Amino acid sequence: IYNSTVRRMFVFGTVQRAGAVAVFLAGCAAPMALRHYQSLKGFVAQRRYAEADALAIKAREDAYGKKNVLLYHLDRGLLLHLAGRYADSNVAFEEAKTVAVDLFTRSVTAEAATLLVNDAVRPYPGEDFERSLIYLFSAMNYVLLGQRAEALVEARQVDHYLNTLQATYHGKGP
After folding, report:
1. Are 81 and 44 in contact (CB under 8 A)?
2. How far apart are CA 66 and CA 46, in angstroms?
3. Among 4, 9, 48, 136, which one is least packed by beta carbons within 10 Å?
4. Within 13 Å of residue 3, how many CA atoms lie on the same side as its CB?
5. Cβ contacts of 55 within 8 Å, gap of 6 or more
6. C-alpha–C-alpha distance, residues 28 and 116, integer Å
7. pLDDT tens, position by position, 83-130
């Protein structure tokens, strides 16, 4: 029953989540990035995921640049997931994890310096929900690849991450 429930959740929910993420990201984007996300959204709506991924790769420098490396890896991970390329999606999500941790660490140590610098010039470290989605999509990818042990590792990582957020924002643990 678990496998059928999980698969049903993936089939019905993944495209809706992808559209919601694309719409959210487009709302935060500059004009060039906005056009890029409108094109991505069109490809995703038509289920042309390979073309959307190719567009993301092509637009890496222009639409994402150095400030949005995390978004690039998140987009690629999601597009590859939607395309059914789960192993490749996990590679992109592992890159996103690395970038997110690095940017978060740098942002914490450089927070005082940002008082003197415009937020728009520093790299985007991602929102908490975006970082948690990295683990969730990686877990889904592993389930769909039949790699349950790896999926459990990702589930434990997201659990740890969410407990850390809870302790940070609410001052109490699980």
Report:
1. no
2. 29
3. 4
4. 7
5. 36, 39, 40, 43
6. 22
7. 999 999 999 999 999 998 888 776 555 555 555 555 555 677 788 899
Only one residue has tokens 């004009």, namely 31
**Cα–Cα distance for residue pair 127/87, rounded to 1 Å:** 24
Q: Scanning the structure block, which residue is given the tokens 């991924």?
A: 53
Please give the backbone phi and psi of residue 123, each rounded to the nearest 5 degrees, phi first.
-65, 150
Q: Is 28:67 a contact under the CB 8 Å cutoff?
A: no
Asked if pLDDT for residue 5 goes beyond 60, the answer is no
CA distance 126 to 100: 7
Taking the C-alpha atoms of residue 29 and residue 34, their distance in angstroms, rounded to an integer, is: 5
44 neighbors 82 (Cβ within 8 angstroms):
yes
What's the burial of 115, exposed, middle or buried (CB within 10 Å: 0-12/13-18/19+)? exposed
The model's pTM: 0.74
Largest CA distance in the chain: 55
What CA–CA distance (Å, rounded) separates 112 from 7?
A: 46
